[in-house]
Amino acid sequence: MVRQSPPIDLSIPYDAAWVKGKTILITGGASGFGAGFVRKWAANGATVIFGDINVEKGDKLARDVQKETGNNNVHFVYCDVTDWQSQVNLFKAAVKLSPHGGIDTVVANAGIAGNDPIQQPGNMDVAEPAKPDFKVADVNFNGVMYTTHLAFFYLPRNPGSKDCSTNSDPATTPRDRHLLFLGSLASLAPFPIQPQYGAAKHAVLGLFRSLRSSSFVQGVRVNLLCPYFIDTPIVTTAARVVLAGSALGKVEDVVDAGTRFTADSRILGRSLVIGPKVNVKQLENGEWVLVAKDSPEGQERAVWEAYAEDWEDSDAFCRALVGILNAAQKARGWTGWAKDMVGAVAYGLGFNRG
């Protein structure tokens, strides 16, 4: 069973001021979405500790945001997300710098893109290929795994926090236990030109979907952002050439969606896709279609909820298969359970191993 809140009604406003007093840790915070989060949340009174490998940008951003917002609780800490100890140091620093000695939200934001060697044949005159560079996968997934492991260590230890709940009152409960993932539209759809990036972002989606059904044990809520191509430095010149003629999404829309998740402690296990602003209307069958910008029937939106249908029904194939397996288990009854238990004990004692 997935323990989650209902689909998000994006027409209902939230209050960004709900982040006031929270301590938020962000990986990859020196530029792109991360920098947008730092500015938005610091401006609304949060303590923000962000890590990045770019020391020059990180230091400058922290100083600029402190000056712009008057919030001195904005701190940069060097962090290479592919290095376990580096991430440990970031989390320890966040706890030390936190006014209340804990972390309310962890944002697994760090990510990179780049040339993908998977399908590149390389030098055809050598007997075997050189070892490929899989740094994209290392940053985008292994780094996220480190962040997740540390989040589940520190979030439940947040002083004054309680188990996540859809009945939480975000206006009066500043303490939280929240892990926010940065996936991508490449988490949901094929990304042919960068299969390594697509595979890593698919893995982040799998991690999110697995955790949201069990993280309630530690009282931690998990949510996911899946941006389309957004106007940030990660979209290279070559990619912009390929995308010419189509619209890019805006950083502020990603920041807005992330702020909704971070501010509203009632939202558990939801995912939002962010793309360019378009004017659309919804048909009776639920399908969205593009309409003219001046159409009275249309509404402008850039944010959509992924997997909203799984509130009532999970993926059709998975649900059907699990239903069959559950029915088979029921049919075997206690006799089948006893037989399997005997087999499990025998296996543990080494009797049935090859």
The major β-sheet equals:
9 strands, mixed
Judged by helices, strands and strand pairing, the structural class is alpha/beta
CATH architecture designation of the largest domain: 3-Layer(aba) Sandwich
Rg, nearest Å: 23 Å
The amount of beta strand, in percent, is: 15-25%
Please tell me what the overall shape is.
globular
The H-level CATH homologous superfamily of the largest domain, spelled out, is NAD(P)-binding Rossmann-like Domain
Write down how many β-strands occur, each being a DSSP E stretch of 2 or more residues: 9
Distance between the termini: 35 Å
According to CATH, what is the class of the largest domain?
A: Alpha Beta
N-to-C order of helices and strands: EHEHEHEHEHEHHEEEH
Total domains: 2
Instruction: Say what the CATH topology of the largest domain is.
Output: Rossmann fold
Family: Belongs to the short-chain dehydrogenases/reductases (SDR) family.
InterPro entries: NAD(P)-bd_dom_sf, Sc_DH/Rdtase_CS, SDR_fam
Pfam families: adh_short
Organism: Lepidopterella palustris CBS 459.81
